[in-house]
Design brief:
globular, 224 residues, 4% strand, binds iron/sulfur cluster
């Protein structure tokens, strides 16, 4: 969990160089389709205030009729296919595009996240250079999209033995003890999906990440 916290802190510092339109109360991006690992859910539950907010939101909820997105493949599983130049299995059934864009139950009436300091990485990664409300969807430069994917892969790697899925299925499993049928087992890092054009910038990023978080990547030589 310490490594997770360091990664979150590192990402926060990394984003400081970019201008974003995101402001407190802007919450179009806060839907029920948030994906995370069980490690991130543990991080939420380890804070009494965040746990109370999560348990209250979960109360009376039936995850099976909640209409939220349920992935049928993890990020590292998907990356493994692409690195082998293979198409991942098509996303059928519950892995299809979100059936709902209803607001996240963790939003306050003022549009603020009630677990903000503990929110999972996929919420932290939702940034935009233009207001989504005006533009319809988030806008960010391609390198940030690459980094977002990379950090999700690293978090999944750190949480091997844990599970991946929608936070409401993770919460139902970890808080209420419901079955884990809609969750996937986390997988080790198979490598990163980097375009040749991004490689130099990416290696500099990875060196900085290793230096500042202490996380090492045995299959990458991150020395300058
Ligand atoms: S990503 Fe879009 S909706 Fe979310 S806070 Fe930023 S501007 Fe607002
Ligand atoms: S957990 Fe917080 S940041 Fe994430 S979608 Fe819900 S309200 Fe938004």
């Amino acid at each position: 969990m310490k490594e997770l916290e360091r990664l979150y802190g590192f990402y926060h510092t990394f984003l400081k160089g970019y201008p974003f339109a995101c402001t407190p109360g802007c919450s179009t991006c806060c839907t029920r389709n948030v994906l995370a690992t069980s490690l991130e859910m543990e991080f939420i539950l380890s804070d009494p205030g965040a746990k109370t907010a999560l348990v209250a939101a979960l109360k009376g909820m039936d995850p099976d009729s909640f209409g939220h997105y349920r992935p049928n493949i993890t990020i590292n599983e998907s990356a493994r296919y692409y690195l082998r130049m293979e198409e991942p299995p098509s996303e059928g059934g519950e892995g299809q595009a979100p059936a709902t864009s209803n607001p996240c139950p963790l939003l306050s009436p003022k549009g603020l996240c009630t677990i903000y300091e503990r929110r999972p990485f996929s919420c932290r990664a939702m940034v935009s250079s233009a207001r989504c409300r005006e533009e319809g969807e988030a806008e960010m430069e391609p390198f940030i999209l690459t980094i977002n994917l990379v950090i999700q892969q690293i978090i999944e790697h750190l949480d091997q033995g844990g599970l991946y899925g929608n936070i409401w299925d993770l919460a139902a499993w970890m808080v209420d003890g419901t079955d884990r049928a809609h969750l996937r087992e986390n997988q080790p890092l198979p490598g990163f999906l980097i375009t040749p054009m991004e490689r130099g910038r990416f290696m500099a990023f990875l060196r900085r990440l290793s230096r500042e978080t202490g996380i090492e990547f045995p299959f990458f030589n991150t020395s300058p």
